């Protein structure tokens, strides 16, 4: 555009010096063309609208189709429009090429590309960059970017048997004849409604008084629940294949929670400490045990999809502190990358307090000797898992 303006000024100078009417005619024609192109493209680009539609939640290994729709809602055509989509590398099935299109009055173009979910994560799709211009290339303008969307890829979930863990072990089944459930005939109070709560638990009278949804809290009879403690301290996984080890630990937590809730129909919760990109900081997250499928998807798996490993933290202390509010007889599952004496002591203490405890160790050097760890020192069952052998096949 600067070259074009410089050319017009040079042409005007020549016309003034030579006083030739032809040069004045050419100058006014080109100047009019420039003004018309500028007004045209700015007015036409104001009516361009873009939208993106896709399934914003998927599991590792899924393919997701994304549809981009570009519309011209005005009566002026858009001579050319350049599109550039921003897609995370971990989701690309193939590079998305820049597209140059033209849109007539009320015109509409639709593009489709595919995302391949290789890794769990919390991703940003977009924004879509837009640049419009006229046919002669006199005027170009950068349009406001198209909207960006978030996408969650859940961690890999596999059957318990593929984790190398027995289906009916202390990990998922408490070895006791008396089951602990909530007694729906004894209401002990109300609490705020959480996503995943059954509508049958809503206390409508209290909801009307409080002007917000609240649900009933029942007194426990002898309740049974599973709390999964996930260690995301990188130092506990060593240097050898650290990334793969932490990802395997996350997948193991997701698989155990899925089995307990979907197969056993029992409550499961999660406690972990890591970097949460949703809030941009390292924090300790406590997800209370519940048995609804919506709870598994919205609370447990969604957290496991986005949480990242970090440095520091006392995992044994975390297990001790967060176990204080569990019901008597609950199952405690600790998932870590090393056999720490402090964690051993904490688990033995919980076992003596009436909890069923299990340890899952993610270790590439798996071996049969670690199947029952320190049974003689207090009977703490330990199970070793590793991705290469146990998590290769999708559920």
Q: Largest sheet, described in full? A: 6 strands, mixed
Number of helices: 8
**Number of distinct beta strands:** 18
What is the CATH architecture assignment of the largest domain? 3-Layer(aba) Sandwich
Proportion in β-strands: 25-35%
CATH class of the largest domain: Alpha Beta
How helical, in percent, are the residues? 25-40%
Distance between the termini: 58 Å
Helix/strand-derived category reads alpha/beta
Based on the model shown, name its key terms.
395 residues; alpha/beta; Immunoglobulin-like; Rossmann fold; 3 domains; six-stranded mixed β-sheet; four-stranded antiparallel β-sheet; 8 helices; 18 strands; elongated
Q: What can you tell me about this protein's structure?
A:
- The chain is an alpha/beta fold.
- The chain has three domains: 2-45; 48-154, Immunoglobulin-like (Sandwich), CATH 2.60.40; 160-181 and 222-390, Rossmann fold.
- Helices cover 28% and strands 31% of the residues.
- The protein is built from eight helices and 18 strands.
- The protein has helices at 2-18, 21-45, 204-210, 242-263, 293-306, 315-322, 341-352, 387-390, and strands at residues 48-53, 57-59, 63-72, 78-85, 99-103, 108-116, 121-125, 128-133, 140-143, 149-154, 182-192, 214-220, 226-230, 268-276, 281-290, 331-336, 356-362, 382-385.
- The strands form five sheets. It has a six-stranded mixed sheet with strand order 15-14-13-16-17-18, with helices on both faces.
- Helix 7 links the parallel strand 16 and strand 17.
- The protein is elongated, with a radius of gyration of 31 Å.
- The two termini are 58 Å apart.
């Amino acid at each position: 555009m600067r070259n074009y303006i410089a050319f017009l000024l040079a042409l005007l100078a020549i016309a003034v010096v030579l006083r030739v009417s032809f040069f004045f005619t050419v100058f006014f024609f080109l100047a009019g063309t420039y003004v018309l192109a500028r007004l045209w493209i700015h007015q036409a680009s104001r009516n361009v609208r873009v939208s993106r539609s896709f399934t914003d939640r998927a599991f590792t290994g899924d393919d997701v189709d994304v549809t981009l729709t570009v519309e011209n809602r005005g009566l002026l055509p858009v001579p050319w429009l350049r599109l550039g989509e921003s897609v995370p590398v971990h989701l690309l099935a193939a590079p998305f090429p820049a597209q140059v299109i033209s849109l007539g009055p009320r015109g509409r173009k639709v593009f489709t590309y595919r995302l391949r979910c290789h890794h769990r994560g919390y991703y940003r799709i977009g924004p879509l960059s837009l640049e419009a211009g006229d046919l002669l290339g006199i005027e170009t303008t950068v349009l406001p970017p198209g909207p960006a969307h978030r996408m969650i890829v859940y961690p890999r979930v596999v059957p318990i048997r593929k984790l190398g863990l027995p289906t009916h072990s202390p990990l998922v089944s408490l070895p006791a004849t008396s089951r602990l459930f909530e007694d729906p005939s004894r209401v002990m109070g109300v609490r705020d409604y959480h996503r995943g709560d059954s509508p049958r638990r809503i206390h409508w009278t209290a909801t009307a008084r409080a002007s917000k949804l609240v649900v009933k809290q029942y007194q426990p009879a002898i309740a049974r629940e599973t709390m999964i403690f996930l260690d995301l301290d990188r130092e506990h996984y060593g240097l050898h294949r650290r990334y793969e080890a932490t990802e395997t630990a996350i997948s193991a937590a997701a698989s155990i929670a899925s089995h307990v809730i979907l197969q056993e129909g029992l409550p499961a919760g999660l406690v972990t400490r890591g970097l949460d990109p949703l809030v941009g900081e390292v924090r300790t997250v406590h997800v209370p045990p519940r048995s609804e499928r919506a709870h598994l998807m919205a609370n447990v798996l969604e957290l496991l999809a986005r949480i990242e490993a970090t440095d520091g933290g006392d995992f044994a202390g975390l297990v001790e502190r967060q176990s204080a509010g569990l019901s008597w007889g609950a199952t405690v599952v600790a998932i870590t990358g090393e056999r720490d004496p402090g964690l051993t002591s904490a688990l033995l203490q919980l076992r003596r307090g009436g909890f069923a405890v299990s340890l899952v160790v993610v270790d590439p050097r798996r071996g049969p000797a670690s199947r029952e760890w320190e049974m003689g020192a207090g009977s703490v069952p330990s199970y070793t898992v590793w991705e290469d052998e146990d998590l290769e096949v999708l559920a």
